[in-house]
Amino acid sequence: MATVAERVYTALAYDTVTGRVLFDLDLTAEPEWSARINDVGGWKITVPLHGQERTAKVREWCVPWRFSVAIVRGGGVPSDTVCQAGPIIPYAPDDDRPMHTVSGKGFWELLNRRLLHHRTWNPGAKRITDASADLTINDSLPNIARGIADHATSMTYRAGSALPLDLPTPTPLGTSTRTYHGYEMAFAGQRLQELTQVDGGPDVLFQPYLTVIGGLRYIRHRMVIGNPYLVQPGVPLLFDYRSNLVKLTIAGDGSNQANSSFVKGTGNEAGQLYGYATDTSLTSAGWPMLDMVDSGHTSASEQATLDGWASADVALYNSQPEQWQATVLADTEPRVGSYLPGHFADYSVKDHHWLRNGKYSYRILGVSNASERDKVLHQLQAVRGS
User: Fold this and answer.
1) CA distances from 212 to 196, 227, 278 (A)
2) What residues contact residue 51 under an 8 Å CB cut-off, 6+ apart?
3) What are the pLDDT digits (tens) for 279-332?
4) Which of 15, 44, 236, 349 is 20 to 30 A distant from 70 in Cα terms?
5) Fold of 237-253+321-383
């Protein structure tokens, strides 16, 4: 009789608002998950529906937004790595088999569903167009990111704003200014992501972890903010090709390449505000001029902010037709959980069909599970092919 392999991952259902773990979930297969800096990330699980009792239990926790799911590499104890955690959003019972698929997003998605305004704004007393809803923060960019999350999760007059979030210690004060008007009705997650995209903007990661409080397990989320990159403790990460670096997948695509960026702000026609930045290093070497128009910031009205986004666009898209994905062993040093998206790593390569021999240093933008249980995938910062 064949033995059933022990599962590498555990899935836990928890209360979204408090973080209290309610159930260890039965799984029919290993879950899927992805975590990425400055982005939402997500997860997906499949659970069995054999018998009315089991189905009733699934119905109890499978409630979008009210409950969340954490994907844990291990058995679900505090020392295990929580790979991704966040609210349940879609679900779909299989019509042919007693199986139920549940999917969700990372913590950031909760901030994508609440308007950003001053925490003391009272919707029962003032309209959101009133100045009392406006939030102005004069500080460093990392502290502004912290302030956005703080105001979005500690509202005085709006029930349900609290979330199991640990804010970092503020960095030294800075001189940047951001004003978020209530009448813009923009979401906190959107404003936070915009802040990460400006030139010199901080990396942001909501890192879930499992803890025990009063004998009960809780999932909490640690907000990690870079200045502009995340602090990386310990020795540099090293992955060796054909050893703990199992595979390097490389894909070239110049469809989004640009060396000049125009960023639309508020206004229209002749009154259109816009940011502009260009880099002539490639055109001077023979490349053609390539423009892009960024329409993702049309509520912005500050010229310096628009120019900052344009500079960030050029830095991102000027020289990156090549995307790298590394497949690495999960339980061989450096183990998954010992590093975070946003950290830098060295990838030592020899006898690769495309790459020259040498050591390549890149930032890990995201980590996700691979099709094989003992491996994970690294999405690396895009680089220009040589």
Assistant:
1) 32, 30, 51
2) none
3) 999 899 999 999 999 998 888 888 988 998 899 899 888 876 788 999 999 999
4) 236
5) Phage tail proteins - horseshoe like beta roll fold (2.30.300)
| Location of structure tokens 């950031």 | 108
The total number of residues written for the chain in this structure: 386
Residue 89, token pair as written in the block: 């959003």
Please give the C-alpha separations between residue 369 and each of 27, 71, 100, 262, 271, in angstroms, as whole numbers: 16, 11, 20, 36, 48
Question: Which residues of the chain carry a pLDDT beneath 50?
Answer: 1-4, 385-386
What tokens were used for 68?
Answer: 């969340």
Residue 116 to residue 190: CA distance in whole angstroms: 9
Q: Which two tokens stand for residue 276?
A: 């502009």
Q: Work out whether the CA dihedral 178, 181, 184, 187 comes out positive or negative.
A: positive
How far, rounded to the nearest angstrom, does the alpha carbon of residue 270 sit from its chain's CA centroid?
A: 37
Cα–Cα distance for residue pair 196/384, rounded to 1 Å: 22
CA separation for the pair 116, 178 (Å, rounded): 12
Nearest-CA neighbor of 348 among 241, 237, 248, 236? 241
Judge contact between 361 and 345, C-beta under 8 A.
Answer: yes
Tens digit of each residue's pLDDT (9 = 90 or more) over 137-150: 999 999 999 999 99
Amino acid at 297: H
Do 340 and 333 meet the contact criterion of CB atoms below 8 Å apart?
Answer: no
Peptide bond between residue 168 and the one before it cis (omega within 30 degrees of 0) = no
Residues 37, 380: Cα–Cα separation, whole Å? 11
Q: State both tokens at 111.
A: 């901030």
Q: How far apart are CA 316 and CA 363, in angstroms?
A: 13
Q: Are strands 344-349 and 176-180 parallel, antiparallel or unpaired?
A: unpaired
With both helix axes pointing from N to C terminus, report the angle between 188-197 and 303-317 in degrees, rounded to the nearest 10: 70
- Give the span between the Cα atoms of 180 and 364, in whole angstroms: 31
C-alpha separations of 72 from 13, 21, 208, 217 in Å: 11, 12, 10, 13
Alpha carbons 193 and 174: distance in angstroms, whole number? 19
Compute the C-alpha angle 243/246/252, nearest 5°.
135
Domain extent listing, the chain: 9-106, 111-206, 237-253+321-383, 260-317
